[in-house]
Amino acid sequence: MPEAELRPSDHRFFQVVHLTTEYAWVAIHHTLCGVEEALREHNPVLARCSALAAQPVGCVWLLLDSLPQLSLISMRVMFPPNTTGLDSPGTGNLRRACPAVWDAFEGVMARQGTDLDGLVEAAAPGYTGPQLTMHEVVSRAA
């Protein structure tokens, strides 16, 4: 959009932050598509996914902290009807990928002989049970 058509002046800021968020969601979705394979092969894809997730969270905070509400309201009148941000391609792809990721996670837990209660117990302060490295967990899961 040409600068002369931007109303209010915060519009370019909003566009850049919004696109940064969308591209991060694309990268997260792409990463999540390989999560089952990553769990089997001790691939750092899970750490990458966690690090990528910080991008859209940071962008949302940036908008909350520095985009005046009046600017956002002024921009909203130019947006297509019924757009909320929750209908973006990035969030849609993440909603579709999450059930597959959860299934892969449950599969690893089952192969490890544990469940969510066991994970909660192992995360509690003072836990003295077995301590496995990620490599050991992935090796046992394969």
Describe this structure in words.
- This protein is mostly helical and 142 residues long.
- It is 70% helix and 0% strand.
- It contains 7 helices and no strands.
- α1 (11-32) runs parallel beside α5 (89-112).
- It starts with 10 loop residues before the first helix and ends with a helix.
Set out the fold topology.
Layout: H1 11-32, H2 35-41, H3 45-66, H4 69-76, H5 89-112, H6 116-123, H7 134-141
Helix pairs in contact: 1-3, 1-5, 5-7
User: DSSP strand (E) fraction?
Assistant: under 5%
Q: What is the count of β-strands?
A: 0
State the secondary-structure class.
mainly alpha
What is the string of helix and strand elements?
HHHHHHH
Number of helices: 7
Average of pLDDT: 79
What about the largest sheet?
none
Helicity, in percent? 55-70%
Gyration radius, in Å: 20 Å
Basic shape: elongated
Poorly predicted runs are none
Quick structural summary:
Helices cover 70% and strands 0% of the residues. It has 142 residues and is mainly α. Helix 1 (11-32) runs antiparallel to helix 3 (45-66) and helix 5 (89-112) crosses helix 7 (134-141).
Sum up the structure in keywords.
142 residues; 7 helices; 70% helix; mainly alpha; elongated
